[in-house]
Design brief:
The chain is an alpha+beta fold. It is built from two helices and five strands; from the N terminus they run E-H-E-E-H-E-E. The longest helix is centred in the middle third of the chain and has 13 residues, at 51-63.
Length: 90
């Protein structure tokens, strides 16, 4: 059974490859979803998949890629969307 979360990652997370890192890790974990930059300098993520994979994904997002500095994360479990394909950068 798939679950989903939406997350907000704050810190030095734009201009450091964070969205590509997020998409690549999501695909490695066989998750679907999206990632996008927000105007305030943070990154928003929505991911869908098995809970154990999502928890592993959250851990990776709390660390981020080399060059990033994650200062704060906020993840909220949400109702899983009916359909989502791939993992896109928006």
């Amino acid at each position: 059974m798939n679950e989903a979360f939406i997350g907000l990652i704050q810190g030095r997370v734009q201009g450091v490859g964070f969205r590509y890192f997020t998409r690549n890790k999501g695909l490695e974990l066989k998750l679907t979803g999206w990632v996008r930059n927000l105007p305030d300098g943070s990154v928003e993520v929505m991911a869908l998949g098995p809970r154990s994979s999502l928890e592993q994904f959250m851990h990776l997002l709390r660390t981020g890629p080399i060059g990033s500095r994650v200062e704060r994360t906020d993840f909220q479990w949400i109702q899983a969307p009916e359909k989502n394909e791939g993992f896109e950068i928006r």
